[in-house]
């Protein structure tokens, strides 16, 4: 199992989204497993700042040469920023899935982090999918 499957300090969903909390802001993206399964990403549709999101709500869509998938929020909060560079360079997610966040949330519900997988738990989960 590659070390790129999960990074410590992040929380994961079984739908292959990650969340990283930095202070009172949560960054959300997709895992290496997800970008690999999708293939070359060609378009990402994200919500506008100000939108209230609940955990497991759709955050938008991600399209690749293979498929279009919904993105789901790992935790609740308010969209404060979307990654503007993804409009012109969605393939950045393929190159660096853990460094390329898609959405930043504020007013996050940190109590919901306990419902997510740790890096070790996510690696175990992904190992059963191979």
From TrEMBL:
Family: Belongs to the GcvH family.
The organism of origin for this protein: Leptospira soteropolitanensis
SUPFAM superfamilies the record matches: Single hybrid motif
Keywords for the protein's UniProt record, in alphabetical order: Lipoyl
Name listed for the protein in its UniProt record: Glycine cleavage system H protein
NCBIfam families: gcvH (TIGR00527), PRK01202.1 (NF002270)
Gene name as annotated: gcvH
GO cellular component: cytosol; glycine cleavage complex
N6-lipoyllysine modified-residue sites: 66
């Amino acid at each position: 199992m590659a070390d790129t499957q999960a990074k410590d300090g992040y929380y994961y969903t079984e739908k292959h989204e990650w969340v990283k909390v930095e202070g009172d802001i949560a960054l959300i993206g997709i895992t290496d497993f997800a970008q690999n399964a999708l293939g070359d990403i060609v378009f990402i549709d994200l919500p506008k700042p100000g939108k209230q999101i609940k955990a497991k709500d759709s955050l938008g869509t991600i399209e690749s040469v293979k498929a279009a998938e919904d993105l789901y929020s790992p935790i609740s909060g308010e969209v404060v920023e979307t990654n503007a560079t993804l409009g012109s360079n969605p393939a950045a997610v393929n190159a660096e899935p853990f460094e390329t966040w898609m959405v930043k949330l504020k007013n996050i519900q940190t109590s919901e982090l306990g419902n997510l997988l740790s890096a070790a738990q996510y690696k175990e989960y992904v190992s059963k999918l191979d």
